[in-house]
Amino acid sequence: MAKRVGNTESNGKKLFWRLHHWVGLYTGVLIGILSLTGAAAVFIPEIDRLIVKHRYDAASTAPASIHRFALSVDSLARKYPDYRSLAVILPEHREEAVRVDLIRPSQDGAFTRYDVFIDGGKDRIIGQRDHQNSLANFLRQIHVRLYDGYWGRQLVGIGGLALAVVAITGLLIYGNFMKKQTWPRIRKNAATRVVMADWHKLIGISAMAFNLVIALTGAWLGLQPWIMRWFDIQVPNAFKPPIVMDAEKDKAMQVHWIELLKASEREFPELQPRYLVPSANGSGTVTVRGNIPGLVYERDINILVLSKIDYSTIFKYDIREQPFGHRFYFVQEALHFGDFGGLALKALYALLGLTSGFLSISGFAIFLFRKRKKKIDGATPWKTIFVYSVLTLLFLTVIAFISLFIGYAQASFAAGIIVNGLLMALIGFAIVRYLVNRRRKSSQAAQ
Question: Is the alpha carbon torsion for 302, 304, 305, 308 positive or negative?
Fold first, then answer.
């Protein structure tokens, strides 16, 4: 009986090791890219704030927390009467410029999104940029969907599942080994493969809980379109007010912003308004989106919809009053990006986030050194790792330059070709490898 139990445990460990090995090997580059881009993505608001201030010289001269922007917003509405959406984004800090998110038709029949900056002290427009070509948009799009509009987001979700599998199997394989050590030990005088293996185990076990949270939330966010379609899940706060007037009349209605903000404070005092979105479809409303301090949820998910006529409440969505399913839905992004505990927490997220990238590189190095030891491949492991790393950084750099200096559409097109081409090549390689190994085993059995 003891022998049977021992064989079962041994077979289970071999299965976990194979899963850890092959899943890590085939998804290592993807996990590495997500690790690097995720470490930068947690600082998107801070990075963008610096760029807006120094690159566009856009700041506010407002002496108090109240910003003035009514005249500038009205001038934009008159200048671009064909706009599809116009949202006022209030700054988080007094010295920041008020931002208008303006979406309007482009010459090719699509839509162009602009960020227009307003000095909240003098109520004047001080600059603008194409939102799609900004560094902030690049960092988010490259991390969330690899800049690929077809399979990118789903691939990121699969990468999250892969990281979860690698983290769990790593714990099952090395957990008991690590528990036997009073203090984690790195064998410094051993062979390179052994030293890398020690660091791989130590960092993998130390950051396992964090990587598991990132993996599961990343899998949910990436696979969300499929999951919501399969299980018929609706976005919890997707309220659509009824159409009560002509769209052009709706656009022409003037919004008294100070009265609007007073109504918001009266109806939803805990809400910190961030987005003020007047309707343009004939519903005659203004949507106020914002945050409630001290809560761990996605940004700007609390909503107050007010009438343009008398600023009475039409709809209110307070996340604190919602059922568990709603709160679970909106906690994912906050947990994934660490956007709930200040700059120190984001720095910790970035540091821990890089561990999954290190684990990808160290795991690949261990694999290559093992192959070299068995004389399966004569290539130098560090040279191979260097080539893979340079190619990965080259991909990120090229897409960034195309996006920032040529255009988002061209960058997305290039990324789609690269990502989907590599995906098809990887699937083809895996199929050919499986068929070759199967044929080799059949030939050996026949002999």
Answer: negative
> What is the reported pLDDT for 157?
95
- Please give the mean pLDDT across all residues of the chain: 90
Token pair belonging to 447:
């002999």
The residue-averaged pLDDT of 342-347 equals 94
Least confident of 110-119, 168-177, 316-325: 168-177
- Report yes or no: 348 and 42 within 8 Å, Cβ to Cβ: no
Which of 422, 90, 7, 16 minimizes the C-alpha distance to 271? Answer: 90
One-character DSSP codes across 398-438: HHHHHHHHT-HHHHHHHHHHHHHHHHHHHHHHHHHHHHHHH
Give CA–CA dist 174/121, Å, rounded.
Answer: 59
SS3 of 149, please? coil
Say if CB 250 and CB 307 are below 8 A apart: no
Q: How far apart are the first and last CA of the chain?
A: 36
Q: How many domains does the chain have?
A: 1
Domain assignment of residue 7, yes or no: yes
DSSP string, 162-212: HHHHHHHHHHHHHHHHHHT-SS----TTS-HHHHHHHHHHHHHHHTHHHHH
Do 397 and 411 contact (CB within 8 A), yes or no?
A: no
- Count of residues making up the chain: 447
Q: Which domain holds residue 175?
A: 2-44+138-233+338-446
In a domain, 199, yes or no: yes
Whole-angstrom Cα distance, residue 157 to residue 223? Answer: 5
> For 91-103, what is each residue's pLDDT tens digit?
988 889 999 999 9
Q: Is residue 381 part of a domain?
A: yes
Distance CA 146, CA 154 (A): 10
Cβ 289 vs Cβ 329: under 8 Å? no
Q: Is the pTM of this model over 0.85?
A: yes
Q: For residue 362, what are the CA distances in angstroms to 9, 48, 186, 192, 278?
A: 27, 32, 14, 11, 52
Residue 62 inside a domain? The answer is no
What's the alpha-carbon Rg for the chain, to the nearest Å? 26
